[in-house]
Each structure stands twice: as structure tokens, then as C-alpha cells.
Design the sequence.
């Protein structure tokens, strides 16, 4: 259970939107009610629609009706509105949210041209969204000027000092871990297709509901659906989960699709959908199936396994230890927060004198502890420290915990070309597959083929037999040559 | 008065809840608390799972509330499922009575905690008691999702005891949440509470504004169909006034994009009424038009067009705003709707000035086909000839990947595990067979140790093979006999025979060093040179390759063989070598039937091949048909002949068309295109489930790349089956519409299908106009712009039915 204390409820009165904040860190350190920005939103209708879509998504559980969650879970009133996380970097505001089923992630990026006003601080915090505000946001029209404050404005400070609105929302571990996993998944994405506004609308009219996994690939100016993966295709699992984008289509200039590199006939993958709203971007990410949350994707495990047990902190990526590790960390965070709003991996690598691969690996671990996010449109990480208790974020992944137990119990030994792992009465053979990853003879591997990260036996081998697990970076689940992004995307990138 | 444990036991087994409450109220608090252990023990002794109401339970529930010492203990007691499900709501009175006794845990705390812990999934179980105790304690309403839903279900909708609505103090607290809590509307409407809300509104006890806000919230948030229908009818019954609609204008505008058609219709109706009252700014009308004109629903679009047309006539000053909106409607995916938008544009174009013409020109640039021609004709401009054609999707033929052998025993066992868990894929099965043979030869004992966990007593080819490779002795009765006639289709029998043969070879110690049939690529083709090398080695060592292995290897030879290979094959002298060059001699280049081959004929005869062709339903193990294209990777038409009866069921309603999954793989096989492939493709395109149709679309895209794809033949099959109503035409048209990027193939199919459908006696199946529209949209891509027999006759008819309109459009497109 997570409790956020707001100074007042967020409200939209007289075309003045005050988003109240609670907790988190700013550039000046921890703050109870950070204040980031006060000024005007230059595209009020789109901004309001974006926030409404974000709120819709936060209370939707796509595993059930496909519509809004009917609150079968825990919690009382208001549990449906799990508050978005907002990051201000002195230039843009990013609102992030994860669906109730943890399988759909959205982010509304209000870019510099979308904001006209004064910045007070930088950092990350929660913002309050409540039913009254939701209703008010649906009334914002295109012509109405909208004054926006993130954080208590002067008036609230003066009149409502000390008055607190407490919100208690359940914050399940899978939700937190899902939010941390998202940047690692997104970092593997490449732009795959782009649709104009009209084609995007037509595409959404044709979408069919249901849990089926489809693939879409560029065909002329539009997209063609396919049943199997082909290189260059973007996975569309359980298409009804794109519904939150529908109300935003009327503001959209283009729809861009992102996805990881896939092999022909490969398993379902994550995908990213980005609506360009002019001065804003709305980003939506789908997990590979209706009933799969991002928390189980296991993208970070290969990097986390290198961390010393118990710290949950940044590991010695690629073998760096102690002071070296701290250097990488410090370099990254400095690179992120010192003026630059996004991180340039090459620059950090050059400054720290380490390889870009190690920087990437360290970044994945920072993402795992909720300290960075990833922006596909700029192909860059950004600094964002989740405003939740750090010890909860650092808690060990269950699979990693199991692997450490196995490694500690001396259950791993070399047998010929494979490594044997004894787990209880069972015996598993961890091996190197033809595409260079670590495979296993366990049921998890038989069912998922590494599509959801390594199994605990493979992780135990990475810990006990590091020489067998030579590749510190997760290999792409792909055996076919890379498909270059369509030329149309190159010029806009 | 005093009561000991035995006395309480006696009381609980005979008296009702009221009597128990009376007795407990006469005791003092220490005496009651002293009985707590007895009460708990009594519950533990009760039959743990009575399905019928247990007669002692209501009294026991009261006794717990009257004796347990703490608030937490009482709350846990009063939430016990096994107690509550045997008690009816009337017991609450007595629970409240005992809790009100001096010294008892505070009833207000108990009530509040009970209420906070009700979950939406257990409203029926926990809500009644929580509600009753809140009332008895005089505590105000507790607002949680579940409490709102319980109130909606029991109180708001109640018509009788025990929940009387009339003097309800909860109404003002609950009403704002009624529409916000997901599921609460369903609870209300199911029990008829919406009518009561309307009644309360007429009496003035509920404000119109509250109800209207609630309706709009729910319309925005969406709901299941039935509750949404009731929300919409409440909204209609409220009859929002122009003032009210004006206040909520922006929300109505947002509802126009709703996924639910009825919601968008209600919003359109409200905004139109506002316009009729003269209070809708034209900018808002334009925004509404932009959204609605691209929707797929005909009714919504036509209404919007009429509305825009009416405003344009009423106030020509708005034309510079409205004509661009109308021109945006040309982008509608349905050609007939786009054409209607063009008609309205044409009506106002001259008065709209340059802004209107510019908008139309911009919209026309995005169009193709007949609509583009009409739009340019309206502008009085020539159709731009050199249009940049965007390259269609996959233009390159399919290239199979090389098959990677397993690199270690661990990898082999990992892959075997997938096979045993039911994965049916040619590359997977072949990697496992190859790995077993090589592993057995390299380190028999190491392999046996690794396979040990997967030895099971089950029958079935794979389990038997694992036992044989591990060196497990089989009792003779378990050994499959060569005389065994598998009751399975011939092409599945090829694999079955290979598994049995290999198991025998493992047991006899005659397993070959490598299998002949192991493919070089994932689509199943063998490498001819490797095959030759293995045959020569076997000949040299005096070994005979397995019959089934050799048969499968021959079936997997690629079509385009090097003449040098044929020459070298002729030098082999062993029986296996002679079979190879006999096969090479008798295989015609473009065969669509299998060649004469003794081993194969034997195999097919054993497997009862003819039987499978006559039987329409998928048989047991039908999933194995997914492997058939890998059995004959260069003979697509032969595989299609065998698959045809298995794909057929997918066109029937509610049938599991699992085998449509095989169509893309089948399409990528080599060999000439033939009639059976066309039939399989059409069955798939007309499958009853949309997911199955998509497989057929993939197959079509894969086939269309080949030069010998016969779209006309496929079209004739489609036309014939549709006109005889074997398949549902509309489904096939939907599927063909999905197949973007292969317009030329789609044009050939539509043009091939139309003559039969246009020439048939009436009534025609639904979907012919859509097929005409599809043909018109793709005609430009057709390499052969041929006349469609029967088209001119339909296009020349004098009515204005959709069939004729679309026929005219197509004849214009063909004539260009």
C-alpha cells in the first residue's frame, strides 16, 4: 500500500488546471510537494485529452472485460485512479502511467512548444487525478486557454497550508517492477512504420478486438496485418489494448510504430505506438500478450545478475567493481541531470573512459531500480527517479532470488558442453543455443524460449559459471539479419 | 443469570438467533467473554462444508458477535464465508442488539471496518450485514467501490423489504459515485434502479445536472452493452435542454469518437439539437464533422453529411470552413460513403471559393481509382498521370533459413522437451531427430543420462523413441509391428513410420550416423549433395538406409536439381541408390501428382491414403497436418489435395478451423499452383473466424509473389462456391480487403469471381457490391485490364441500387 499526501485535490476551475503533487525527488533533494511549472498549455484540448487517456488507462485491466476495471481487486474508492508519475526536466513534462493489468504503459510527453511559462524545479513526483478533475478535463475545448500548474501554486500555499488529501493506493510489486522494466524493453525498439493522420484513423477503424496476436507491417502508405512475425513487422497482441489512443486521433498528425528486431516466425513481442500531437507526444507500449505484464519480461535479469547479492544497486556491469562502479553511476547521473534533459551514451562513455556497451548495461540496471526512463522518439534515456520507497524498488526479482539460492547451494557443475543445475530432485541442463543465448531443459524455457528473460537455472549458471555465460549483454532473440528501418523514417528521425 | 459452555452449546443447537441474543444480553461482559472459546470451538466442530443452510449458523453468528473480545475478532467472525452463506439478512438485527450491549467492542468500529473490507466480488455475501450494522450504529455511509455497488444493487433498486429506499440518507452521498464506480451502473440497471433515478429526478430529489453529468461520465468511460443501453435511455429520457447541452458541449464532442456506435449517435443527436437551437458555433460543427465523416458507420456518416449540407445551405458564409471538412470525408475507407461526401462537396464547391477548391485538391491527391477521377473531374483538372506509386509490401520471394543442428546434449533435451509438450513444427522435430541420432553415436550413456527424466510409460512415437534411445528394454507386446496400419492420413504416417523405424534401429544398434531426411533448411528441403554423400558412404560400408528415412529424403529433394547431381546419382548401385535415380528419372518437372515410387506407394497404401481424401472432418491428431508441407516441400499442389478436406471445416460456423494455420506454410512450398491450392485458399479466405481468414491472407500474399499464381482460377473457384452458397461471400471480401500490397492478385481474383456472381439467378449472396467496389479499387494495379462478362449489363440497369452504383464505378475503372 502506498500513501500519497497531497496538499489539496487537483482541480480545474476557471480554465486553471492545478495538478497537485506528492513526494519524490527534485534537483534540490526530496520534497513533499514539488513545484515544477506554472504557465499555459498551448494546446489545451489535446493536453486535456492526453491526461484523460492516461487516467483511463491507469484504471483499466485489459485481462478482464477489456474495458475499465470493475475494481475486483483490493482497495476502496479511488483505487481505480492510480496516480500518474510526472517528470519535469526544465523543458518538458512527462506523465507516465501503467494499466491495472501491468501490460500497457503510456506516457504523455508535453514538449517545450506545448508549454509557455515558468519553471521552478526539476524532478519526479506523483500527481493527483480524481473523478471530478477527470470530468472537468473532458470539458476542455480547443479554444479555451488553459493555465497549468504542476505543483501547488502560490494561492494554494497561502490558503490551504497543511491541509492534506491522503490517497492510499495499492502498489503491487508487479506494478512497480513493470514500470521499472519498461525502459529496458523500449531501449531495444527501433522505428518500424509511420502512418499519416488519415491512415492512422482508418487503421484504428479496422482494428479487431480479441486476444489474438497479430503482426503489422508497412504496405504502401498503410499497414498490412499478418499472422506471423516477419523481419520488420511490429507485433500487435490483443489489439483492443490500443483503445486509449482512439480519442486522441483527432489531434494526431502521425502515428509511428516501434518494435524490437524480430525473426521470421518468432514469438510475440512488445511494441510501441506513438502519436505525434504536435507539441506533445503520446506513447503507448503493449506487452506481448493480454495476460502478460511487463514485470515478467525479465529483460533486466541478465544485467542484474552481475550485481553483488543484496545490494540491488547498480552492478559491476561488465566486471567493473567498487569505485569503478560508483564512477559509472556518478557519470550517468551527472550526464543525465547536468543541464542535459536526455542522456548521450557516447558522451558519457567518453567522459568516463568506459565502453558504450558498459554504459548501456549500467543504464539498464538503473532502469531496473526505477531511476531512468527511455524515450524512443529521441532514442535516449532520461533521468526519472520513481517517487516510491527505494527499498521496494530494490527488492530482489523472484527469479534472481531463486538463482542466488541455487548458486549458493553449490548446485551448478559443468557436464561436457553443458552445465548441470540440480534443483531439488530435478536435474536441468543449461546450454548455449544456436543463437548464442543460454537455454535450459526446464519447462519455463520449453514454453517461452527465452521470450520472457532467462530462467532461474540459466541465471544460476551466470552467477556460478561466469565463464560459461560469456555475453554480459542480453542477445536479441533473433537469428535473421537486421532489417533497416524504412527510409521514410530516417529523415524524420 | 449465568451460562456455562455446555449451556451455550445446548442453546446454540436448539434456539434461534433472537433467543441467543436475549440470553447473552442478560449476562455481564466478563461472562460473555468467558464463552468466546466455546463459540470458536463450536464453529470448528460444525460440518465444514454444508451446502444447505446449517440450522445452527444464525445463532452462532450472533453468539460470536456477543462473546468475542475484540473489534478485530468480531470483524473476522462476521466476515466468515461459511457462516454468512447460511444466514439471512434478518440476523443483522440480533447482531446489532448484542453489539450494542455495554462493554462489547464498539459497534461503530465493527460496522465501519466491515464496510471498508467489503470487496466488489463479495458484495452479496458481505454487504448486507455491513449496511445493516452501519444503520444500527448510526454511522454515516462508507464510500468504497463495493459499498456503492451494494447500495445500487440492494437499496436503490429495491422494491420491497428489507431494504426500504424511501427515507434513504445514503442517496446524496452515493449518487455522485454511482456512475463513477465501474460496475455500479450494471448493478443499478439489472435491478431496475434507473427508472427510480428518473422518478426521483422528476420529484426534484435528484438534480438533473447530477444525472446528466453521471450519464456523460459513463458514456465517456464506456461499459458493457446492456448497462450502456440503460445509461443511454436514461440520457434520452432526461432530454437535455439546449442550455444543458451547451454547458457540456465539449464532452459531447469527445463522445463522437466513442467505440460504441450508440454513444456516438446519442452525442450527434444532442449536438444537432443544439445546432437547431442556433447555439452551436460553426467551429465546433467542423470539429464534429472531421471526426464523424471518417467513421465506418453508414448511419452516422450520412446523418453528418445531411447536417453539414443543411448548414451550408442555411448559411453560405460558413462554406470556407465547411467544405474542407466535407472534403476530409473523401478519406472514408468505404468508397460509397466517400462518394456521398463528394456529392455534397460538389453541391457547394462553386460558392466555397479558393479555400474550398484547395481543400478538395489536397484531399483528391490522396485518392486512387474512380474516386480520384471524379474528384479531379469536379475540379475540372486532369488526373495527374505520374503518380508516385508506393512500393507494395513484401515483393521478394520467401527464402528459407538454414536449419541449425543442436550443439549439445542440453540443447537437444531442451528441444525434445518442447516436442513432448506438444509443439508441432518441422524444424523443431527434425533438429531433435538429428540430435538424437548424432548424440546416440557420440555418447550413448551420456545421452541416456540426460534423457532419463523424460522416460515415461506412455505410448506414442516420441515416447517410444526416447525409451529406445535411452536403451530402456521394451516388453515385446509394446513394440510396434511393421504390419501395423496407422489410422492416420498418409502424410502424417510418413513421420510415424520414421519414428518407429529409428526406434528399431536404436534397439538393434543399426542407427545410421546421420539421417538422410534431415533437412538443410527450415522449410524442409534436403541438401542433395549431402544426401548423395551419405548414400555413397552407406554403400561403401555395406549399410542399408532406413526405408522410411529414404522415402522422406526423396520427397524432400528440391525441384531444380543440378544435372551433375543426377549424373552422380546414376553411379550408385545399392538398392537405395537405385531408388534415388529411379525417382529422379520419373519425376516430371511440373508434377501436381506424386510420381510412381515403389517405397512411397507402399507407404501410402499402408496408411490408407484414399480414405483421408474422402473424409471431410479433421481426425484425431489433426494438428499433425501442420507438418505436411514439410513432408513434401516442393509439391504444394499434392499437399493441398491432402489438406483440402481438413481446411474445409473452417468455413462452417463454430468449427475450430485450426488447420487454416497451415496455409501460409503451404503457400511457401515449391511447385506449380493448382486447383486444390486455389480451393484451400478460398476456404481459408471465407473461414468463419476472422483469425483464420488472416492466415489465408498471409498465404495469398506469399503466393502472389510467384509468377505462376493463377488469380483467375482462384477467382473462378470463389465465384462458384459463393454463388452456390457453399461459402459466405462477405467474409471472403473482408479478407481480400485486408490483403493490401498485392492489388494485382486481388484484382485477378475479383475479376475471376464476378462473372459467376453477376450472371447467377437472383437472389445473389450478400457482398457482391462490396466485391465490385474492391475490384474497382484494385483494377488500376491489374496487369491485364480485361472486361468482366456480365458487368455492362448490370451497370446499364436503370435503378440506383448499390449493386448498380458499384457496377458503374467498376466499368468506369476498367474503361480507363
Sequence:
Amino acid at each position: 500500500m502506498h500513501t500519497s499526501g497531497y496538499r489539496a485535490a487537483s482541480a480545474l476551475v476557471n480554465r486553471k488546471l492545478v495538478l497537485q503533487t506528492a513526494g519524490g525527488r527534485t534537483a534540490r533533494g526530496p520534497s513533499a510537494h514539488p513545484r515544477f511549472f506554472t504557465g499555459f498549455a498551448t494546446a489545451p484540448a489535446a493536453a486535456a485529452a492526453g491526461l484523460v487517456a492516461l487516467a483511463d488507462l491507469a484504471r483499466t485491466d485489459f485481462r478482464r472485460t477489456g474495458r475499465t476495471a470493475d475494481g475486483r481487486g483490493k482497495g476502496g474508492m479511488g483505487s481505480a485512479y492510480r496516480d500518474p508519475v510526472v517528470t519535469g526536466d526544465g523543458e518538458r513534462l512527462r506523465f507516465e502511467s501503467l494499466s491495472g493489468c501491468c501490460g500497457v504503459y503510456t506516457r504523455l510527453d508535453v514538449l517545450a512548444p506545448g508549454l509557455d511559462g515558468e519553471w521552478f524545479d526539476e524532478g519526479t513526483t506523483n500527481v493527483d487525478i480524481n473523478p471530478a478533475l477527470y470530468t472537468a478535463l473532458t470539458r476542455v475545448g480547443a479554444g479555451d486557454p488553459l493555465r497549468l500548474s504542476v505543483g501547488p501554486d502560490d494561492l494554494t500555499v497561502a490558503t490551504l497550508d497543511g491541509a492534506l488529501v491522503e490517497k492510499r493506493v495499492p502498489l503491487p510489486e508487479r506494478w512497480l517492477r513493470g514500470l521499472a522494466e519498461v525502459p529496458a524493453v523500449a531501449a531495444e525498439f527501433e522505428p518500424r512504420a509511420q502512418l499519416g493522420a488519415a491512415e492512422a484513423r482508418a487503421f484504428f477503424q479496422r482494428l479487431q478486438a480479441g486476444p489474438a496476436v497479430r503482426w503489422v507491417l508497412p504496405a504502401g502508405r498503410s499497414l498490412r496485418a499478418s499472422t506471423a512475425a516477419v523481419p520488420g513487422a511490429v507485433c500487435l497482441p490483443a489489439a483492443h489494448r490500443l483503445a486509449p489512443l482512439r480519442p486522441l486521433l483527432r489531434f494526431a498528425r502521425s502515428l509511428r510504430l516501434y518494435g524490437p528486431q524480430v525473426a521470421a516466425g518468432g514469438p510475440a513481442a512488445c511494441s510501441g505506438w506513438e502519436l505525434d500531437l504536435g507539441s506533445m507526444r503520446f506513447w503507448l507500449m503493449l506487452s506481448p500478450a493480454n495476460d502478460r505484464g511487463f514485470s515478467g519480461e525479465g529483460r533486466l535479469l541478465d544485467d542484474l545478475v552481475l550485481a553483488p547479492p543484496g545490494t540491488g544497486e547498480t552492478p559491476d556491469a561488465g566486471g567493473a567493481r567498487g569505485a569503478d562502479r560508483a564512477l559509472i553511476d556518478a557519470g550517468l547521473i551527472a550526464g543525465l541531470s547536468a543541464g542535459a534533459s536526455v542522456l548521450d551514451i557516447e558522451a558519457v562513455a567518453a567522459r568516463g573512459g568506459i565502453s558504450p556497451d558498459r554504459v548501456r548495461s549500467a543504464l539498464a540496471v538503473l532502469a531496473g531500480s526505477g531511476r531512468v526512463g527511455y524515450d524512443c522518439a529521441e532514442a535516449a534515456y532520461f533521468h526519472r527517479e520513481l517517487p516510491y520507497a527505494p527499498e521496494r524498488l530494490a527488492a530482489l526479482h523472484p527469479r534472481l532470488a531463486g538463482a542466488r539460492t541455487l548458486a549458493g547451494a553449490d548446485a551448478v557443475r559443468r557436464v561436457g558442453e553443458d552445465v548441470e543445475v540440480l534443483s531439488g530432485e530435478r536435474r536441468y541442463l543449461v546450454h548455449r543455443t544456436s543463437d548464442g543465448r543460454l537455454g535450459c531443459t526446464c519447462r519455463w524455457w520449453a514454453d517461452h524460449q527465452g521470450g520472457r528473460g532467462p530462467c532461474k537455472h540459466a541465471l544460476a549458471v551466470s552467477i556460478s559459471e561466469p565463464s560459461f555465460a560469456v555475453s554480459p549483454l542480453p542477445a536479441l532473440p533473433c537469428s535473421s539479419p537486421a532489417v533497416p528501418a524504412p527510409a521514410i523514417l530516417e529523415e524524420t528521425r | 443469570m449465568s451460562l456455562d459452555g455446555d449451556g451455550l452449546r445446548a442453546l446454540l443447537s436448539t434456539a434461534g438467533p433472537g433467543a441467543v441474543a436475549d440470553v447473552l444480553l442478560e449476562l455481564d461482559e466478563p461472562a460473555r467473554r468467558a464463552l468466546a472459546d466455546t463459540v470458536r470451538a463450536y464453529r470448528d466442530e460444525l460440518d465444514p462444508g454444508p451446502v444447505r443452510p446449517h440450522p445452527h449458523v444464525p445463532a452462532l453468528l450472533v453468539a460470536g458477535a456477543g462473546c468475542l473480545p475484540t473489534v478485530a475478532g468480531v470483524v473476522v467472525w462476521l466476515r466468515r464465508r461459511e457462516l454468512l452463506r447460511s444466514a439471512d439478512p434478518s440476523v443483522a438485527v440480533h447482531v446489532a442488539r448484542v453489539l450494542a450491549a455495554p462493554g462489547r467492542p464498539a459497534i461503530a468500529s465493527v460496522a465501519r471496518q466491515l464496510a471498508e473490507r467489503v470487496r466488489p466480488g463479495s458484495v452479496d455475501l458481505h454487504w448486507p450485514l455491513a449496511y445493516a450494522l452501519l444503520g444500527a450504529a448510526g454511522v454515516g455511509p462508507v464510500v468504497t467501490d463495493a459499498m456503492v455497488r451494494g447500495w445500487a444493487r440492494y437499496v436503490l433498486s429495491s422494491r420491497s423489504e428489507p431494504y426500504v429506499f424511501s427515507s434513504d440518507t445514503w442517496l446524496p452521498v452515493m449518487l455522485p459515485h454511482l456512475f463513477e464506480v465501474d460496475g455500479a451502473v450494471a448493478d443499478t440497471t439489472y435491478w431496475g434502479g434507473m427508472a427510480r433515478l428518473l422518478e426521483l429526478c422528476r420529484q426534484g430529489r435528484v438534480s438533473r445536472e447530477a444525472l446528466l453529468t453521471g450519464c456523460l461520465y459513463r458514456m465517456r468511460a464506456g461499459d458493457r452493452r446492456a448497462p450502456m443501453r440503460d445509461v443511454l435511455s436514461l440520457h434520452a429520457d432526461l432530454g437535455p435542454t439546449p442550455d444543458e447541452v451547451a454547458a457540456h458541449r465539449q464532452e459531447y464532442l469527445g463522445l463522437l469518437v466513442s467505440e460504441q456506435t450508440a454513444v456516438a449517435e446519442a452525442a450527434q443527436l444532442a449536438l444537432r439539437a443544439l445546432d437547431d437551437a442556433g447555439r452551436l458555433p460553426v467551429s465546433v460543427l467542423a470539429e464534429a464533422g472531421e471526426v464523424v465523416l471518417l467513421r465506418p458507420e453508414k448511419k452516422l456518416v450520412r446523418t453528418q453529411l445531411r447536417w453539414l449540407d443543411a448548414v451550408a445551405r442555411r448559411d453560405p458564409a460558413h462554406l470556407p470552413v465547411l467544405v474542407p471538412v466535407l472534403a476530409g470525408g473523401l478519406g472514408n475507407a468505404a468508397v460509397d460513403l466517400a462518394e456521398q461526401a463528394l456529392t455534397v462537396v460538389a453541391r457547394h464547391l462553386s460558392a466555397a471559393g479558393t479555400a474550398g477548391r484547395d481543400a478538395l485538391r489536397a484531399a483528391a491527391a490522396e485518392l486512387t481509382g474512380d474516386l480520384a477521377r471524379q474528384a479531379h473531374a469536379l475540379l475540372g483538372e486532369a488526373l495527374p498521370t505520374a503518380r508516385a506509386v508506393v512500393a507494395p509490401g513484401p515483393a521478394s520471394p520467401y527464402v528459407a533459413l538454414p536449419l541449425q543442428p543442436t550443439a549439445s546434449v542440453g540443447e537437444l533435451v531442451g528441444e525434445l522437451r518442447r516436442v513432448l509438450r506438444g509443439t508441432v513444427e518441422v524444424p523443431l522435430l527434425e533438429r531433435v531427430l538429428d540430435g538424437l541420432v548424432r548424440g546416440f553415436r557420440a555418447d550413448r550413456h551420456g545421452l541416456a543420462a540426460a534423457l532419463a527424466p523424460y522416460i515415461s510409460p506412455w505410448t506414442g512415437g516420441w515416447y517410444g523413441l526416447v525409451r529406445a534411445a535411452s536403451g530402456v528394454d521394451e516388453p515385446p507386446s509394446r513394440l510396434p509391428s511393421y504390419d501395423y496400419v496407422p489410422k492416420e492420413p498418409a502424410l502424417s504416417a510418413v513421420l510415424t513410420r520414421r519414428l518407429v523405424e529409428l526406434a528399431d534401429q536404436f534397439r538393434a544398434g543399426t542407427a545410421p550416423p546421420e539421417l538422410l531426411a534431415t533437412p538443410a533448411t527450415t522449410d524442409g528441403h534436403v541438401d542433395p549433395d549431402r544426401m548423395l554423400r551419405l548414400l555413397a558412404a552407406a554403400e561403401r560400408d555395406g549399410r542399408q538406409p532406413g526405408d522410411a528415412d529414404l522415402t522422406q529424403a526423396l520427397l524432400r529433394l528440391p525441384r531444380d536439381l543440378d544435372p551433375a547431381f543426377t549424373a552422380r546419382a546414376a553411379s550408385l548401385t545399392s538398392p537405395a541408390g537405385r531408388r534415388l535415380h529411379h525417382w529422379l528419372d520419373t519425376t516430371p518437372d511440373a508434377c501436381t501428382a506424386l510420381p510412381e515410387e515403389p517405397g512411397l506407394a507402399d507407404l501410402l497404401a499402408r496408411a490408407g491414403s484414399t480414405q483421408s481424401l474422402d473424409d471431410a472432418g479433421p481426425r484425431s491428431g489433426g494438428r499433425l497436418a501442420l507438418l505436411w508441407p514439410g513432408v513434401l516441400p516442393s509439391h504444394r499442389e499434392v499437399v493441398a489435395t491432402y489438406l483440402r478436406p481438413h481446411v474445409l471445416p473452417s468455413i462452417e460456423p463454430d468449427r475450430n478451423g485450426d488447420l487454416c494455420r497451415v496455409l501460409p506454410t503451404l503457400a511457401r512450398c515449391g511447385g506449380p499452383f493448382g486447383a486444390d491450392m486455389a480451393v484451400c485458399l478460398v476456404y481459408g479466405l471465407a473461414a468463419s473466424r476472422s483469425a483464420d481468414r488472416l492466415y489465408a491472407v498471409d498465404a495469398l500474399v506469399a503466393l502472389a509473389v510467384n509468377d505462376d499464381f493463377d488469380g483467375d482460377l482462384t477467382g473462378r473457384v470463389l465465384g462458384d462456391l459463393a454463388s452456390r452458397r457453399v461459402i459466405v461471400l462477405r467474409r471472403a471480401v473482408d479478407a481480400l480487403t485486408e490483403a493490401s500490397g498485392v492489388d494485382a492478385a486481388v484484382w485477378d481474383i475479383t475479376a475471376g469471381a464476378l462473372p459467376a456472381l453477376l450472371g447467377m439467378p437472383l437472389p445473389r449472396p450478400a457482398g457482391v457490391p462490396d466485391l465490385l467496389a474492391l475490384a474497382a479499387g484494385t483494377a488500376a494495379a491489374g496487369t491485364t485490364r480485361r472486361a468482366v462478362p456480365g458487368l455492362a449489363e448490370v451497370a446499364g440497369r436503370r435503378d440506383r441500387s448499390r449493386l448498380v452504383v458499384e457496377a458503374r464505378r467498376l466499368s468506369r475503372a476498367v474503361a480507363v
User: Anything to note?
Assistant: The first strand of chain A starts at residue 2 and ends at 6. The two ends of chain A are 41 Å apart (CA to CA).
